[in-house]
Amino acid sequence: MRACNALGEIFKYDLHDFEKAEENYERALVVTQGLDSIGTYDLINLYYNLAATNRSQNDYGTALNWCFKAVEGCVAVKDERFLARTYSLVGNIYRDRHDFDSAVMYYGKGVDVSRQPKDHEGYATLAVLYGGWGETNYRQGEFDEAAKKLRDAIVLYKKDPETDKSIYFHTVRLLGAVEIKRNDLDAAESYLKYADQIRKQENLEKGGQVSSLYRTYGDLFSAKNMKYDKALLAADGLKDYAYLALLGKAEVLSGADALECYSSAEKLMIVNRAELDTEDAKWNYVDANYRLYENILATMYDLKDRDQAQLFQFMENSKSKSLSDALREAELRKAVGKNDTLVSKLQSLRQRSLSIQHRIDANNGGTPRDELIENTREITSLEALIDEKYPSYIKTRNENNIVSFDALREMIKKIDAVFVEYFWGDENVYALVVDDSVKLNLVGKTSDLENLVDQYLLFFTTKGNQYSTDAVGDYSKVSYELYSLLLTSFDNKRLIIVPDGPLMQVPFETLVTKPGGLSYKDLSYLLNDHIISYDFSASHLLATPQPPKNKPSLLAFGFTGGANERSPDASKVVDCRQ
What we know:
Elements: H1 2-14, H2 18-32, H3 40-56, H4 60-77, H5 80-96, H6 100-112, H7 120-140, H8 143-159, H9 165-181, H10 185-201, H11 208-235, H12 239-252, H13 255-274, H14 279-288, H15 291-302, H16 308-317, H17 320-336, H18 341-359, H19 366-389, H20 391-398, H21 405-414, E1 417-424, E2 428-434, E3 438-445, H22 446-458, H23 469-486, E4 494-498, E5 512-514, E6 524-525, E7 531-534, H24 538-542
Parallel strand pairs: 1-4, 4-7
Antiparallel strand pairs: 1-2, 2-3, 5-6
Helix pairs in contact: 1-2, 1-3, 2-3, 3-4, 4-5, 5-6, 5-7, 6-7, 7-8, 7-9, 8-9, 9-10, 9-11, 10-11, 11-12, 12-13, 13-15, 18-19, 19-20, 22-23
């Protein structure tokens, strides 16, 4: 009898041949009829196996009949542990039949007889009961109850070092799915990441459970997408809220879809920034949203077919917009004057617009929204009056001065140059290289580049100014490493470099293009092979030179490591052209 039962278990649990398993279980049952002293546990276990096998074959009626025989045996011998296991199986069968109320009833019975587990088997049985109960609640649409039961199951699984990792994995993944339904997307993502950790630990790459995990991840991303779409609709013209919703949506998308969201967010950012009237406010706004451009470049770096002109526009927008605006504002303030009544009133209205937008939320939308509409009307009317008095003010203030990509390519082709523009992000440093082709290079991690630049600049201090062979070797090594990351070999004689961040302090001419050398004069410097020039951006490089003015002034820029080094008084700026 036991041999036949063992064969049945092999066919069921190892070979998944349920017909052969049932044949062996039934053969074992026939054998027991001729035995007078068969152990009760063996018979109960046989009933249980027959129930489980019939369930696997979707013969739920027969499965329940065998289950209830097992229940009768457990009650007769007062075996609560096996009784709880059997109740769990009954619950599973009813759940498979979509008889959820009956399933919940039997899961509850199983929990009642096994509330205080004392060993591995007790913890495992109670965890399975709570897990099955939670899954049934999930199918019933009772998501709060499902979350409670599944959390209880996970707590029990964590207490049991011998937990069946497959069932544990399923329970954690299912809780992630429940949290999606409860609209707690952060919790859902946390549980799915935890399930993925279990998957990796168990080296699971294929199978139904793994497929379910990835499908649930898809549900999560879809829910996030819908969430941000709803946020965009709810924003109802409020640029700050729409901007944040677009950023959130982009993070759950990838490729061209994410780029489209980032592109829309950038347009809103530029409009928001244009409403600010002080130079400091504009610079601070760009600083606060600088990560947007890093996300854009990271997305475009992963794209196989990227729009070269669009890439150039984003790179330029990341720096030249603030620079060109600052230059224009300096000139416009001189032309219009600081105390013009209309301009002062326009600045006040724009500040009021920002204040109103900050007061708008889901609870007080009515009155502030009406105020914002009226304030916008006043701004539009006032801009029309200013445009009559100062025809160039509104136009110049809002026009886009980014040069075309074709203009840059034509210029560098004409002078046989290579244009290299850097972007220094929080996580990575990128380089846009334009010559006969257009490339977006990932230079490296920001932290690594920052350490290397610090090492390199140390050689130009008094402390680092050493002339020994070892010092020359150290300089050559660090310089060549920096060159290898920042540049590659070019046939063109001229290099036009737009540095960013700490790279503004690096004298590119001194970079070593080949390692080795016993003295500084023997080293192969970049300056030996190329004519090197610098600029703030391509737009600034190609800007039409302005004729000299009677009262010229200078607006100077440079990397300050975060310190505020702008001149507080334009009248104290020295004219370097005199």
